Amino acid sequence: MTRGQLVEQIKKKASFLCVGLDVDLEKIPAELHKEQDSIFMFCKRIIDATAPYAVAYKPNIAFFEAYGLAGWQALERTIDYLNSHYPEVFTIADAKRGDIGNTATRYAKAFFDQLQFDAITVAPYMGQDSVEPFLAFKNNHTILLALTSNAGASDFQFHSENDVALFEKVLKTAKTWQGAEERLMYVVGATKAAAIQAVRSIVPHAFLLVPGVGAQGGNLDAVAENGLHADCGLLVNSSRGIIYASQGSDFDLAAANAAQELQAQMQRWLQKKQII
Amino acid sequence: MTRGQLVEQIKKKASFLCVGLDVDLEKIPAELHKEQDSIFMFCKRIIDATAPYAVAYKPNIAFFEAYGLAGWQALERTIDYLNSHYPEVFTIADAKRGDIGNTATRYAKAFFDQLQFDAITVAPYMGQDSVEPFLAFKNNHTILLALTSNAGASDFQFHSENDVALFEKVLKTAKTWQGAEERLMYVVGATKAAAIQAVRSIVPHAFLLVPGVGAQGGNLDAVAENGLHADCGLLVNSSRGIIYASQGSDFDLAAANAAQELQAQMQRWLQKKQII
């Protein structure tokens, strides 16, 4: 999917919502445990219920890998279902991979060629040759960790040389890499809304994937105020706040309501900033 | 496996060799393509041939994931084979995972509970709460990226605050985390042999996993001279130099020879340093 197609869909749905699929078998309704592939069935019902309000889906790969082979099969079925039934949505493998060149190429093949995701999250620690193999895929997008939403973000991401914090150094360096202008996005945690201004001063035009709204305490208004640009430029993720809005048999309806509520807030912001 | 059991095995085999399993179907002998599970069959023959000389095996997870479900199955068979036939060897999932707490726990379950690896490689970018969930597994070891062997290592790992480079900050911070003293090891690239002295000044007693000997240009003598301590404290990895020593039908014999040659060098160093 191109950036243009993503922007078009954002305007059409009046939404920049990404739904995170962090599937925990202990939290899904009992009735689904009777299904042969309960992980996939849960994902399918969440997707069907929230698709009118979401422009992106982000399976969290750890939650699938934790179930071994059955989890990997459920991941394959989930991405196949998204690609066949909702080809207009942007699909993100939240994998946070990062390794040297020849290994990075393998991860890119796993998620772009085998599984047919549009995008993958990648960690920056190993530098340019660990990220460029992903950027070499011209129909895909790479989403680099810059400033994360967790408490541990403060351990290293603010390590500063000449007043340049590591997360700023990552942004300044990565934006110069081959293919970055067209296909590199960045993860910026919503719990650090003030920092979104700092991020925007370095990458004014890039798309930012913003986790941390909802369960992690991030504030959508602060993110939208500081992060939106003419092409929207934001994908705001909510996982637990949507997929576990109810743990009863009405879980899909509750997920749809939670997604719609966020979409309505997003629509107001898109209108306020005259993007739609 | 405990650290004591690992040290015992190192002394018994007079080796601190780790064999990296980066299985590329394009590089394995044609005869193996006739097998039903050629990835696993290649790993099995490499393991059987090199086990007298190696104390650890390190499947590179990307190379398995790149083959989708078949790759994941081959990974399961490979680790099961190691655990059932060579329970004394130390098994490392080279996965370089790193994510927030609840997700990190899932990755830990995937590799420690589901697949039964002894250890996993983990990236530090997201800080304490992304690593401690791995350290909470008391029978397993976590191997944190500190200084990597690739060119991109220089992009961020030397970013310095008050003359403390990021990789040094990672070591200084991580060694204080819960469980680190007993169960945290570090990745230090062999292409930076001089830096091993700097690493040893911060973590004098820890085990270091050292990739980059062989194909990546690292020098075993420089690593051993600066890195060995009374408990050995090193696992030196070679992947391509061993598993692709020959691409003909004698690949396992060639792998054994390459492994034996490294083991002989290691034995001389263990004797020189009076560890055995």
Provide a short characterization of the protein structure:
The structure is a homodimer of 276-residue chains. Chain A is of the alpha/beta class and 276 residues long. Chain A contains 13 helices and ten strands.
Low-confidence parts of chain A: none
What letter string, H or E per element, gives the SSE order of chain A?
A: HEHEHHEHEHEHEEHHEHEHEHH
**In the residues of chain A, how many domains can be counted?**
1
CATH architect. name of chain A: Alpha-Beta Barrel
Q: And the CATH topology of chain A?
A: TIM Barrel
CATH class of chain A: Alpha Beta
Number of strands of chain A: 10
Strand neighbour order, sheet with most strands of chain A: 1-2-3-4-5-8-9-10
Quaternary assembly: homodimer
Please give the most extensive interface between any two protein chains, plus how many residues each contributes: A-B, 56 and 56 residues
Give the fraction of residues assigned to helices of chain A: 40-55%
Mean pLDDT of chain A: 95
Sheet/helix structural class of chain A: alpha/beta
- Radius of gyration from the alpha-carbon trace of chain A, in angstroms: 18 Å
Number of alpha- plus pi-helical segments of chain A: 13
Global geometry of chain A: globular
Provide the CATH superfamily of chain A: Aldolase class I
List the helices and strands and how they pair.
The structure is a homodimer of 276-residue chains.
Chain A: H1 3-13, E1 17-21, H2 38-50, E2 56-59, H3 61-65, H4 68-85, E3 90-97, H5 101-114, E4 119-122, H6 128-135, E5 141-147, H7 153-156, E6 160-161, E7 164-165, H8 166-174, H9 180-183, E8 184-188, H10 193-202, E9 208-210, H11 220-227, E10 234-238, H12 240-243, H13 251-272
Parallel strand pairs in A: 1-2, 1-10, 2-3, 3-4, 4-5, 5-8, 8-9, 9-10
Antiparallel strand pairs in A: 6-7
Helix pairs in contact in A: 2-4, 2-13, 5-6, 10-11
